[in-house]
Amino acid sequence: MSGEHHPEWVIDPETPSVARMYDYYLGGKDNFAADRAAADQVVAAMPNVLEFTRANRALLSRAVTMMAARGVRQFLDIGSGLPTQENVHEVAQRAAPGSRVIYVDNDPIVLAHARALLADNPLTTVVQADLREPETILGHPEVKVRIDFTQPVGLLLLAILHFIPDEERPAEIVARLRAPLAPGSYLAISHGHRGEVTQDVEDQVRSAYGRTGAGDIIPRGAAEVTAFFAGTELVGPGLVQVADWRADAEPFRSDMSRPGFLAAVGRVV
């Protein structure tokens, strides 16, 4: 861990946090009443949110394991959320000891928990930055010291891009993050997918997330999510429902009528 100066953090227990809601979905304890109330509203409207949130966590483990098996030894996880079981550094360093991992988040509780967890891990750190500012992330001193962009990098953007509205150009943000990655790097994305749900369900979900500091949630279709992978070749089954992704699966078409997360991993070419 570095000795960098950290600005004063303000933790507001009355305002729901996306990271703390996610922690609640996973059965964690790092959440407040406001987080649980917002999350319960989502669960009431869309009960399978618990299923695909846990599937998203399993995707992380499978994708990182695959990247490590293919020679990736440095990982950048943006919008990492609260530490839980099978974090990126645990998966990567178990598969390939010596792997370097940087977590990026802008939530004060995430930063505090991650720094405490990683205090004795010299290969892993966390930096405070926002996905909307890719140059700030790429230019951060910890990133510049720990990531060698002439070598393959595993870039993870899991369950984060659906908080970026179209007017903030999410595809451009992804392209700017991908630009310095060496060939042989990998990009993993999971993204909220509306599926065939009623307008009332969508309104309830968006209302709950609208109370968070992250703002509204923007579900996107398969074509829109696929566009984020420009400059890469999709591996495994391609873009599928998150629970269906396996590194060794043949290409197939998931049931896109189900709401949840779509997921894919692309190899930078």
What does this protein structure show overall?
This is SAM-dependent methyltransferase. It comes from Actinomadura geliboluensis. It holds the Pfam family Methyltransf_19. The protein is 36% helix and 16% strand. The chain has 269 residues and is an alpha/beta fold. It has a domain at 58-196 and 220-268: Rossmann fold (3-Layer(aba) Sandwich), CATH 3.40.50.150. Helix 1 (18-25) crosses helix 2 (33-45), helix 2 (33-45) packs antiparallel against helix 9 and helix 3 runs parallel beside helix 4 (88-95). The chain is globular, with a radius of gyration of 17 Å. Mean pLDDT is 91; it is low at 1-8.
Quickly give the structural class.
alpha/beta
Average per-residue pLDDT, rounded, comes to 91
Query: What is the helix fraction of residues, given as a range?
Result: 25-40%
CATH arch. level architecture of the domain at 58-196 and 220-268: 3-Layer(aba) Sandwich
> Biggest β-sheet, characterized?
8 strands, mixed
Radius of gyration: 17 Å
CATH topology of the domain at 58-196 and 220-268: Rossmann fold
CATH superfamily of the domain at 58-196 and 220-268: Vaccinia Virus protein VP39
- The parts where pLDDT drops under 50 for at least 5 residues are 1-8
GO biological process, one term: methylation
GO molecular function, one term: methyltransferase activity
InterPro entries: SAM-dependent_MTases_sf, SAM_dep_MeTrfase_SAV2177_type
Pfam family, one: Methyltransf_19
